[in-house]
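To assess whether the prediction recovers the assembly geometry, we first specified each molecular entity separately, as shown.
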Amino acid sequence: MTKNNKPYRLRLPGPTAVPEQIRMALAEPVVAHRGPEFAEVMAETGQLIKPILGTANDVMAFTSSGTGVMEAAIANVLAPGDKALVLVNGQFGDRFVQIIEGLNLQADTLEAPWGEAVAVDEIAKALQDGDYRAVVAVHNESSTGAVADLEAIGSAVRDSDALLVVDSVSGAGGLELQQDDWGVDVLVTASQKALMCPPGLGLASVSEKAWNVIENGAGQARFYWDFRRARESAAKGQTAFTSPMPLIYGLRESLRMIHAEGWPNTLARHRRLSSALRAGVQALGLAVFTKSPMLSDTVCVFEMPDGIDGSAIVRHFYETYGTVIAGSRSKLRGKVIRIGTMGCITDEDIRLDLEQLEGALSELGWSVEGGVGQAALEAALQPAN
Amino acid sequence: MTKNNKPYRLRLPGPTAVPEQIRMALAEPVVAHRGPEFAEVMAETGQLIKPILGTANDVMAFTSSGTGVMEAAIANVLAPGDKALVLVNGQFGDRFVQIIEGLNLQADTLEAPWGEAVAVDEIAKALQDGDYRAVVAVHNESSTGAVADLEAIGSAVRDSDALLVVDSVSGAGGLELQQDDWGVDVLVTASQKALMCPPGLGLASVSEKAWNVIENGAGQARFYWDFRRARESAAKGQTAFTSPMPLIYGLRESLRMIHAEGWPNTLARHRRLSSALRAGVQALGLAVFTKSPMLSDTVCVFEMPDGIDGSAIVRHFYETYGTVIAGSRSKLRGKVIRIGTMGCITDEDIRLDLEQLEGALSELGWSVEGGVGQAALEAALQPAN
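The predicted structure of the complete assembly is given in tokenized form:
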């Protein structure tokens, strides 16, 4: 229940609502983190995650939020004096810059306006002109709904000495990822977005090209974040330091659910539901904020019409319906609303999202022709044939 | 169940068995980590933890293992060029040295043989001779069962410019802690030991003396571990980055349980059960490994007699009884066994520990007079009068 006793509905672009069977998995008894029972859990989880990330790498687990593994990725690959080229078109690109500068390293940026895509064809030129250890990108910029074309970025980086470091915290599990084929060298993600788990677990997957850099020890991660230590432990079905067991139990359950649905079906559901929500909301007369060619399937970001304050919409959702959607905590505050379309959501969820948005807009004085939004949403929900 | 279908009994010195009502708390629905419902959970948890640590400070929460917050403590207080004086008498003192050196800082050590106490009267002299930013100590050295006399160490450090940094990962919740009175400047602990929760949550509490150092920004923690950022968030009932919600729910439940038992009673139970287990095992003819004046109430460490391999005892416990106790992962491997006496344990637990140890020793050829151990244990369990 919410504080004012409405049934609570979590519709953020993360953390996302956790299905009951995953919540029950969290409650499984804690066992020895270096014993055979837990090694089995780790082994199964480690196998089930690979197709989701599109990798044959052993995936390493950290007790960490998404930001922690972003910092870990940087700390492992960049040595003092190294420069990174960061693609910035939203809040999490900015965060990478802060992390890099916080480690006393240099971050040059290739920028695009928020919501647009960074021009991939400038990457190759930048790599020729500058001596970059890494190109750093955000797969799914959840602050704007823009998705980076990792395949194209990977092609631009692949033949250089630079490593491609990618944050897919809000992408993995809801967006296609082909780490190995696309040439992503360090991929990090976390449990609480499309992977349907609570927050608390960070994941990292590292290419051979990146291991060659990390193994020589030039990086700055010497203990907690040290990928070398984590890799040794992962090979034994362990983590370097005590594992966040409930989260691993939860992730295993989540991955079992994804594979039971069929991973391509999970992806198609994300695409279908996010497209339908956008269609419905656009029919209400609102614009999709995102202008990049690739739109997110895991979060929908809508621009507020003149005179409508996004924060008031968010408040109305919470106070009237008990539904928690997101505004913006960045420079877009008040200008956009963001609704998660990832994890365990269903047709019913987005129908309700639209109905509540219609109610909120109407309350705030935006008149909407009845039924238009629902019709567009339902049309988009129909399977194409 | 264990892999060979015995009922599983977790008796490690952490992670410890998690009581069912805490496990159920982990499964509570995830909510918005910056919303009012979660702020209430954080506020209650933040109040309930203070008496356990003996502090009036706002306690900060991190998605982290114990090692992570140890690294965070160091990264926040030591600037490049700074030296720390580390008290080393076991594995976690060694770990602090590794962490400090990993950050390219200098760690001088005051050492004692493992299991003994570091001579507190050498600290004042060392502080006069060397220019130390911090004195670093382990409260409860779970590798050996030695407890540091933090009150005396605090007295030695208090009037110097140095900060006292303490790891009480395996102490807090089972050993008395008076952070403020004893002059502990940075105290870190974690969820999975005497606090009866699963692993995944690190906690840090910082004195005004330490804030004066941290706020000037000399430290190296610029983002994920930045205490300044964490402090701002804690004041709002939040964490700087997405909270590991299930662990916070669990910690709140754990603290409610401790306060329902009565915190002094919780401490007395740890003292009584650990003393009784030591008495019983000593009556079997085994020696307590720990030689420091202050013995741990949260872990009992026993020396193996000649010809008995500690690893074989650990294996016998697991294979025959389904009970997981610890040997050593350090230079004491094979020479000691370690049994956790922290968290939700009862008289029955230590009776069973002793019975199973008697069985294991007998199986490995150590003949024991029947009933002697149990008698000593039962005598020690009686309330003094």
